[in-house]
């Protein structure tokens, strides 16, 4: 069609289309025109995502990167920030490159930006979707004010093995909770208008099954049945897609013999064809190059494989940049596929409004007014208090009185840089208040705080170095252990209560931080024993990037508050909860095992043919261990409050429902304690007979409610056929007739149940 005819047709048709279609038509016209001018090299250049490289004097990115921008060999840059630096890089693209295609700037904006919120596992423990969405919104406001438009978040990998360090970055073990959080994050980051100055393109990662790495070792193989994949691991990715996420990051791992980065079934058949994803697919950091080590061929071969599988953009490795031209000549890849990948990158930029305003995020004034401001810190404090999980509170040790002396002892007491937690690349680690500083600021003169390191983080200095990377420092005391402990006990001698600040350093979880021993390090355990032996009340404030094995501590220590890594305002938030200004309401998003040998451990397990009778912990020829029972130490959904919630028996509107009908379930929850409190009322369902084996319980609904002291609230849930569906062995999404058991309670273990049937 002639160009003039095309324009005429466009003018005639446009007024009759809906807004979304009009936008698409406009975008397509713009991109058709742009792409018609692009050379093959320029198209391949758009597929190249690089880091800023080493800054050389006078440059904001490495000279190599600057040259490539000018030559049109770069589509995006990540980990470059500030309006000034991103402006300079963008100016090169706009002034020196032939077609003036703007660069997209990305960053790992995972749980906040400069203002950091709790690690994602902690945010998940809030079970508060609005709050999580608000944290993502604030993160987007700050990051976009600092030059960035693309967040490599949300990370939604389901993990049921706490040895895996990256369990800290996701929402835990449950696909339903994980899916809701994934969608909330996407809404928060992208808002409802990607063109807005404070909206970011979200990137759901890591597609797929990264959290199921064998033996919890990072980057390890996954191999799993399709029905498990679809029922248990896919839902959060799918939820992000359904929420309109603009991009997907592909995982490093092997999936049933084909690494994700080369997996056409995953990236094209599932993602694009079945799920209808129309956005940008990006590799993880050198994920394409790593296919060489996976054993799929040389760089040229693996780059072909990856592009053909459906990968659009190559992070860091430059396999696409350096080999695709030749592969096209040899007929190993098609022009059509290169065009589609290039188009996906350009569409992302178009949707962000970068073609209209490439400098939309380079306003230095916004950087001053929108980053790390009081309003954001207030939300960070609230989010932190809501992420904490009270695991034990014997004899109401907590809350503490705002008076007297408190000894805050332990290697995590005086380290600000560890408070933001792992993957907080934009936090100001050096200036984040430590636990003690935050507590002091919050408590003022009411409480005297004395403090001591008590022990090293780890006995082994080399291990401690591996565990405190990227400026997350904890000083070492090289004196002999007994001397250090004795000094700590001496310091605490006049205290009314001891707060033991123990656990992991922030870099003991996160990427490439898997552990086989997920307990509190032995040297800290020895300190804790001595603290308990003083006879003073001891509160363990547990820093953890994962569910930890604390069976012994939960026997001996009267109160345990699990605080994960709470972000910028950790110290104040801990004070808020310890001293009763905030009643804790967090609930575990992942089971805490009794022993590492129980892993993988999750509440939604199968029954097996030889289940253990309830209440028993060993029986010969049953599915169990000789040395530890099957139960978690603290189950999924568990978390105490200062008040006491009592549940009545749940009731249902009927004992059966027909396909297409609904069942109304109600439960009364009473606050019979002395505090107002928030409770997460949880509803689980078991499909008692199925065409494939079904989990013993699956979370299907929950509601977080504030119940005032003395008050009773009725919580109502509606069960539909959709809630009873699962993927059968033919991967059909169906509900099957038969009997179901429905459980309601305050966690996945302590529930009351009723039965109903689904009938034709
Ligand atoms: C991680 C990703 C991250 C990327 C860019 C990789 O090592 O797996 O989660 O987005 O680096 O920083």
Automatic annotation (TrEMBL):
InterPro entries: Cellulose_Degrad_GH3, Fn3-like, GH, Glyco_hydro_3_AS, Glyco_hydro_3_C, Glyco_hydro_3_C_sf, Glyco_hydro_3_N, Glyco_hydro_3_N_sf. It catalyses: Hydrolysis of terminal, non-reducing beta-D-glucosyl residues with release of beta-D-glucose. One of its GO terms (molecular function) is beta-glucosidase activity. It holds the Pfam family Fn3-like. It is an enzyme of class 3 (hydrolase). Residues 1-20 form the signal peptide. Gene3D superfamilies: Glycoside hydrolase family 3 C-terminal domain, Glycoside hydrolase, family 3, N-terminal domain, Immunoglobulins. SUPFAM superfamilies: (Trans)glycosidases, Beta-D-glucan exohydrolase, C-terminal domain. Residues 679-748 form the Fibronectin type III-like domain. Keywords: Glycosidase, Hydrolase, Signal. Its EC number is 3.2.1.21. Belongs to the glycosyl hydrolase 3 family. This is beta-glucosidase. It comes from Sphingobacterium corticis. The lineage of its organism: Bacteria, Pseudomonadati, Bacteroidota, Sphingobacteriia, Sphingobacteriales.
């Amino acid at each position: 069609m002639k160009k003039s005819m095309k324009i005429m047709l466009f003018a005639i048709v446009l007024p009759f289309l809906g807004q979304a279609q009009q936008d698409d038509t406009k975008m397509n016209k713009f991109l058709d025109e742009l792409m018609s001018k692009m050379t093959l090299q320029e198209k391949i250049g758009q597929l190249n995502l690089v880091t800023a490289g080493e800054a050389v004097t006078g440059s904001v990115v490495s000279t190599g990167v600057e040259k490539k921008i000018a030559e049109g060999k770069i589509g995006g840059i990540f980990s470059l920030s500030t309006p000034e630096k991103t402006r300079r890089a963008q100016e090169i693209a706009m002034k020196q490159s032939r077609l003036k295609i703007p660069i997209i700037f990305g960053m790992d904006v995972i749980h906040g930006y400069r203002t950091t919120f709790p690690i994602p596992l902690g945010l998940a423990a809030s079970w508060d979707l609005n709050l999580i969405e608000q944290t993502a919104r604030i993160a987007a406001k700050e990051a976009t004010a600092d030059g960035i438009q693309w967040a490599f978040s949300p990370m939604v990998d389901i993990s049921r093995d706490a040895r895996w360090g990256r369990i800290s970055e996701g929402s835990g073990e449950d696909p339903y909770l994980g899916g809701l959080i994934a969608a909330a994050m996407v809404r928060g980051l992208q808002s409802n208008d990607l063109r807005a100055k404070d909206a970011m393109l979200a990137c759901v990662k890591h597609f797929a099954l990264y959290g199921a790495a064998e033996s919890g070792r990072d980057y390890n193989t996954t191999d799993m049945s399709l029905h498990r994949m679809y029922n248990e691991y896919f839902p959060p990715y799918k939820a992000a897609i359904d929420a309109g996420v603009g991009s997907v990051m592909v995982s490093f791992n092997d999936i049933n013999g084909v690494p994700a980065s080369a997996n056409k079934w995953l990236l094209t058949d599932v993602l694009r064809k079945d799920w209808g994803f129309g956005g940008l697919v990006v590799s993880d950091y050198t994920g394409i190059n790593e296919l060489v080590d996976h054993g799929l061929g040389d760089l040229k071969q693996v780059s072909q494989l990856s592009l053909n599988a459906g990968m659009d953009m190559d992070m860091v490795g430059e396999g696409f940049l350096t080999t695709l031209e030749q592969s096209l000549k040899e007929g190993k890849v098609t022009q059509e596929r290169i065009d589609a990948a290039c188009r996906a990158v350009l569409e992302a930029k178009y949707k962000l409004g970068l073609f209209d305003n490439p400098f939309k995020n380079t306003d230095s004034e916004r950087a001053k007014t929108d980053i790390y401001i009081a309003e954001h810190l207030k939300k960070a404090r609230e989010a932190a208090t809501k992420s904490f999980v009270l695991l034990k509170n014997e004899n109401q040790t907590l809350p503490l009185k705002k008076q007297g002396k408190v000894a805050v002892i332990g290697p995590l007491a005086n380290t600000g840089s560890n408070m933001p937690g792992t993957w907080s690349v934009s936090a100001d680690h050096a200036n984040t208040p430590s636990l003690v500083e935050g507590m002091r600021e919050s408590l003022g003169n009411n409480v005297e705080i004395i403090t001591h390191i008590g022990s090293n983080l780890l006995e082994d200095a080399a291990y401690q170095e591996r565990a405190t990377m990227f400026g997350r420092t904890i000083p070492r005391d090289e004196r002999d252990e007994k001397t250090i402990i004795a000094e700590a006990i001496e310091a605490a001698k006049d205290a009314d209560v001891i707060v033991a600040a123990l656990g992991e350093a922030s870099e003991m979880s996160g990427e490439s931080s898997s552990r086989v021993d997920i307990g509190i390090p032995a040297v800290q355990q020895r300190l804790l024993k001595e603290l308990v032996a003083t006879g003073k009340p001891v509160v363990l404030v547990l820093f953890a990037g994962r569910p930890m094995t604390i069976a012994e501590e939960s026997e001996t220590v009267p109160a345990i508050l699990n605080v994960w890594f709470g972000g910028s305002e950790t110290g104040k938030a801990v004070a808020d909860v310890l001293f009763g200004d905030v009643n804790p309401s967090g609930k575990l998003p992942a089971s805490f095992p009794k022993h590492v040998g129980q892993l993988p451990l999750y509440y939604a397990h199968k029954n097996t043919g030889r289940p253990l009778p309830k209440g028993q912990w060993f029986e010969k020829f049953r599915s169990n261990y000789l040395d530890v029972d099957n139960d978690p130490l603290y189950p999924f959904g568990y978390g105490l409050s200062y008040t006491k919630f009592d549940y009545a028996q749940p009731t249902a509107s009927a004992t059966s429902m027909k396909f297409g009908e609904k069942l109304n379930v109600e439960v009364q929850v009473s606050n019979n304690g002395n505090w107002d409190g928030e409770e997460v009322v949880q509803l689980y369902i078991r499909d008692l007979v199925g065409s494939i084996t079904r989990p013993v319980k699956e979370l299907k609904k929950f509601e977080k409610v504030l119940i005032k002291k003395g008050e009773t609230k009725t919580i109502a849930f509606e069960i539909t056929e959709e809630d009873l569906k699962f993927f059968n062995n033919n991967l059909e999404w169906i509900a099957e007739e038969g009997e179901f058991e429905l459980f309601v309670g305050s966690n996945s273990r302590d529930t009351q149940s009723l039965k109903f049937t689904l009938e034709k």
